[in-house]
Known about the structure:
Elements: H1 2-21, H2 26-29, E1 45-60, H3 66-72, H4 79-82, E2 90-108, E3 111-138, E4 149-177, E5 182-215, E6 218-228, E7 235-259, E8 262-273, E9 280-293
Antiparallel strand pairs: 1-2, 1-9, 2-3, 3-4, 4-5, 5-6, 5-7, 7-8, 8-9
Amino acid sequence: xxxxxxxxAVFGSVSAAQAADMPDLPxxxxxxxxxxxxxxxxxxxxxxxxxxxxxxxxxxxSQSVVGLTNFIFRNSVLQxxxxxxxxxxxxxTQGTNFGAFVGRNWQWYxxxxxxxxxxxxxxxxxxxxxxSNQLDIINPAGDIHPDNVTDHWNVKLTGTxxxxxxxxxxxxGRVGWDGGDFMPYAFAGAAVGRMDVxxxxxxxxxxxxxxxxxxxxxxxxxxxxxxxxxxxSQTQTQHRTNAFAVGFVAGLGVEYCxxxxxxxRVEYEYVKFSPVMNTSVTxxxxxxxxxxxx
Length: 294
């Protein structure tokens, strides 16, 4: 019996020695985190910063004077055939942008969701164009005339238009990925822009009536005109200052942690505004920025 107690004591001593020599595993120390991220940087929190960059502006003036021509030709047989005229073209211009941003990130493991507000000021983002069109409109719908008379409405339109985008605010939702010191992200949201828009159109309308008669097999053609039509020959101008246009924004970017809460960012942003006086503006913004996260 004493031999059995001696053997048990020896095995107990060996087991205790082996336990003391085992490595200090994290699971024994409670060292496991509640997530799977191995990042060395925490992107969660509020932040703010400033940015600047380059803007490419594409302005579509093709339908800019439609509202004015509809007014000139209202209640006439010329309103319908001239309503879809494309009098001017698209134009492109470039400029610089400066702004600021403020936002908040929420981080779950490697996924980052954020909400951000931005302000952008555009330096001299101004563009203008002009154009003209002339068409012979024959017997338009609603035109009343004898059966042997053909009406030729000769309509000439000359127009100019200009637009300048001044600044913009945007509210953007962001989705990012924690890449350690890097955070690539995508964003989308709504924007409100402030711009000056002007447009002018001049119409010159004449009417020529061609009468065709046949008597005894002989056809006679009589031409009356061209006669001016003062009611539809006029100039209309419209200008709006600090007009607001709503739109949407979308884009991609990446942020890099420089030191502690200080970070830099590079991003591309696409902006599409709703038309102002039938003038549609699209912006492509490329920016670099510097921010600080609390």
